[in-house]
Amino acid sequence: MALAEFLEDLDELADAAVAAFAAATDPKTLESARIEFLGAKKGRLKTVQKKMGQVDKTDRPAAGKHFNQLKQRIDQAFAAARARLDQGASPARQSKKEPFDPTLPGMSVTLGRRHPITQTIEELKEIMGRLGFHVADGPEIEDAWHNFEALNIPPEHPARDPLENFYLSVAGSNDEPMLLRSQTSTVQIRVMEHTPPPVRIISLGRVYRPDTADATHYPMFHQMEGLLIDTRVTMADLKSVLRMFATSYLGGDVHIRFRPSFFPFTEPSVEVDYQWNDQWIEFGGAGMVDPNVLEAVGYDPEQVTGFAFGLGVERLCMRRHNITDIREFYKNDVRFLHQF
Ligand code: DAH
């Protein structure tokens, strides 16, 4: 077969294909044109391609080159036709043809919402605000003074064990290690260092502990710390505040229980339990601020006393909404988050 003949067939075919694609006014016609010209088995382009074997050997490279060029042209024409039809299907294009109908339902916009823990934090701030507590903030990366020493936790205390904490290799030094704070009690110290008594603050934020995640543990969680320093503060004040807080957040019928306990920074210390499904569940710790802590920040324990508490925010939110697995908060599954 002569080269000229082959090229002629090719050109004719390309013209026909381009014209067919351009003439298509709906996806169906375009698809049948595609099958006619570009079909993998019996397409007309395929048929011409097969003829290439009959072209004289010396002319074959030229034939191949021309074939590729035309194939490209046909492919482009097809892509352009498809883009044109796709665009025609869009609402923008339709609205040009059809008059605007204001009675049609609009396009709904899906609004996001704040994370349940963020919502809880906002609500806790609001409740404690009504009881006269201001919000204080502290850093999540802490030094040993604020996380331990000033809180009366000596170097040999097990709470300082590297296995119980996230010490940071990128910050601090061997002499002055830094860590992700393991409790928000750090903020008590930071506030008292800068504020003369009386003090009445809460601090809400993240704390970190190398716990294995399960239904009630997560290596990162949130606490609400509270601190009240004044003259003649008693444990009755502490219990009243925690009870008022609980009835505001959890409902009027919630019961509160103190269990004797130990924390280095309070004396005496208690665990705070609230009732949940007829069971006593621990929500945090509390106590009267230890005189050593008051001294560490330069207060005079003969002049002022106070109470402190630390409650788990996730647990409060879980009790309120009957959530039974803390991991749900951090899976980022919108089907869960959407419910709050
Ligand atoms: N920081 C304690 C913890 O993380 C909780 C706590 C207990 C905070 C007693 C306090 C307190 O302020 O007085 O386990």
3D architecture notes:
With 340 residues, this protein is an alpha+beta fold. The chain folds into two domains: 94 residues, no CATH class; 222 residues, BirA Bifunctional Protein, domain 2 (2-Layer Sandwich). The strands form two sheets. The protein has a seven-stranded mixed beta sheet with strand order 1-5-6-10-9-8-7, sandwiched between helices. The radius of gyration is 37 Å and the shape is elongated. The N and C termini lie far apart (76 Å). The model has no long low-confidence stretch (mean pLDDT 92). 3,4-dihydroxyphenylalanine binds next to β9 and β10.
The major pleated sheet works out as: 7 strands, mixed
Named once each, the bound ligands are:
3,4-dihydroxyphenylalanine
Radius of gyration equals 37 Å
Cα shape: elongated
The helix content is 40-55%
Strand content: 15-25%
Order of helix and strand elements from N to C terminus? HHHHHHEEHEEHEEHEEEHEHH
Low-pLDDT ranges: none
Strand order of the largest sheet: 1-5-6-10-9-8-7
Give the total of beta strands.
10
CATH superfamily of the largest domain: Bira Bifunctional Protein, Domain 2
Assembly state of the chains shown: single chain
**CATH C-level of the largest domain:** Alpha Beta
Mean pLDDT: 92
Count of runs of 4 or more consecutive helical residues: 12
Number of domains: 2
Alpha-beta content class: alpha+beta
How is the CATH topology of the largest domain named?
BirA Bifunctional Protein, domain 2
What is the second-level CATH architecture of the largest domain?
2-Layer Sandwich
Q: What descriptors fit this protein?
A:
elongated; three-stranded antiparallel beta sheet; 22% strand; alpha+beta; BirA Bifunctional Protein, domain 2; 41% helix; seven-stranded mixed beta sheet; 340 residues; 12 helices; binds 3,4-dihydroxyphenylalanine; single chain; 2 domains
